[in-house]
Specification:
Length: about 150
């Protein structure tokens, strides 16, 4: 499978016939995959920067609570919420993130949490479960406080 990702155009048997070791094949493939991942990251980052140039981003406590509710109910994808959090973080870095000052700590902590909701331990297996998200929601918005 790794050789198929590599895209060198030279079939594995031909590479071996040319004297390439399997470890060399894997190194080439790993470098190719790393380059593609880096290109995707840069592309995603550029789209965030272009979007942010259009003005301030405002995030409210209610909006963050709604995002956590949608996450727990699996209405919005983990990747979509992580991208939202990355955009909010980038907006904050350039001074374009506006939050209610009375709740800025909860808003910011919940943004940071959402940044990692799409982490995977292996392809298709997420690090965090729905139960983890429900616990986090209760931590950020205890029933007796909000």
């Amino acid at each position: 499978m790794a050789v198929a990702l590599c895209g060198s155009g030279t079939p594995p048997r031909a590479q071996l016939a040319l004297g390439m070791k399997r470890s060399t094949q894997q190194e080439m493939c790993d470098k190719f995959v790393q380059k593609r991942v880096a290109q995707k990251f840069i592309s995603d980052l550029m789209s965030i920067v272009i979007t942010l140039g259009s003005g301030e981003m405002k995030v409210t406590l209610e909006e963050m609570r709604d995002k956590f509710d949608a996450l727990c109910q699996e209405i919005i994808s983990r990747e979509e919420l992580s991208a939202f959090a990355a955009k909010a973080m980038a907006a904050d870095d350039i001074g374009e993130l506006e939050m209610d000052s009375a709740h800025s700590d909860v808003i910011w902590d919940s943004i940071m949490y959402l940044l990692g909701v799409d982490l995977q331990t292996e392809p298709g297996i997420y690090l965090h479960s729905i139960e983890d998200f429900e616990e986090a929601r209760e931590k950020f918005w205890p029933k007796d406080k909000y």
